[in-house]
Amino acid sequence: MSARVDLYRDNASVTRTLEIVEGNLVDSVDIRSRVPSSNLGLILHLQGKVQLPAEFLPDQAFGKDLPPAFSYWQNARRAKFKDRAEFQVEYTDGLRMKVVVEVPGEFSLIHASAPDTPLPARRDVLFMEVAGRTNVNFRTTFTPETN
Question: Where are the beta strands (DSSP E) in the chain?
Fold first, then answer.
């Protein structure tokens, strides 16, 4: 399934495609900006706990130049990657998923805790971010893992 929004934000359009490929859920998001942006990003809301690699470090400046909604995020941690990052996500019902994020070139991943419903619940979020580009493709693949 695909959807396109021509005015995703000022000077930018977005196309999102969700598909099942060999039993995996693949989420592909193309953002096209007409001018280089200070950042282009995508938020991935997860209902499980992300098992973070050691390279994630506290990001005290997170949210400084972002919309006010990001001020509700807590415990932001950032790491830089090139082309690919892989994580395990554990859910309360025992399900484990391998989550692979692919972004051409260098990109940052920010992990944080964000408000969930019903309040005061919280959930893990990942914010994928690139700087200074006019176009980017964020591809996320979810693979269920068996015990």
Answer: 2-9, 12-21, 24-33, 40-45, 49-51, 57-58, 74-90, 96-115, 122-130, 135-145
pLDDT tens string 36-85: 766 889 999 988 999 998 999 999 989 888 889 999 999 999 999 999 99
Long-range CB contacts for residues 32-36, cutoff 8 Å, separation at least 24: 32/134, 32/135, 33/133, 33/134, 33/135, 34/134, 35/11, 35/134, 36/132, 36/133, 36/134
Distance in angstroms (rounded) separating the CA atoms of residues 85 and 70: 23
Cα(104)–Cα(29) distance, integer angstroms: 12
